[in-house]
Write a structure and sequence with these properties.
By secondary structure, the chain is mainly alpha-helical. It contains 6 helices and 3 strands, in the order H-H-E-H-H-E-E-H-H. The protein has a 3-stranded antiparallel sheet. The longest helix is centred in the last third of the chain and has 19 residues. The protein is globular and about 55 Å long.
Length: about 130
């Protein structure tokens, strides 16, 4: 039997579905990519906010909380006034960087194919 043909490969908790669920929001992959590619695995909240055009402070907060709960990043509060919060990729988060970087690389190398897509009605792409 070939991969993807057994009933177990289509269960709701199968590995491919769990991966897609993790990256169902664009910001999770973008935070992973940004932490890895631009900030060597760690960055303060304000730095992340400035590094991710289009994300609101509320959405960043929600995204990093979800990522922390999933174990992809860890949150470190430095005692200062006001307190400084830094987010760091965990070992688990570093494991997820590879597929994200592959997708981002594919996107850069295949921009022409992406340009041929018909924009969705709610897309910000014109």
């Amino acid at each position: 039997m070939q991969p993807g043909t057994s009933d177990d490969d289509w269960r709701e908790d199968c590995a491919p579905r769990r991966v897609l669920e993790l990256f169902a929001t664009k910001w999770t992959s973008m935070v992973l990519h940004t932490l890895h590619a631009r900030h060597d695995g760690n960055a303060r909240t304000g730095v992340l906010l400035r590094s991710l055009p289009g994300i609101s402070k509320k959405m960043l907060t929600q995204t990093v909380r979800d990522m922390e709960a999933s174990g992809l990043i860890s949150r470190h509060v430095q005692s200062a006034i006001p307190p400084m919060v830094e987010y760091r990729l965990t070992d688990l988060g570093r494991r997820f960087v590879e597929p994200v970087e592959l997708l981002y690389g594919w996107g850069r190398n295949n921009a022409d194919a992406l340009d041929q897509l018909v924009p969705r009605p709610n897309s910000r792409r014109s």
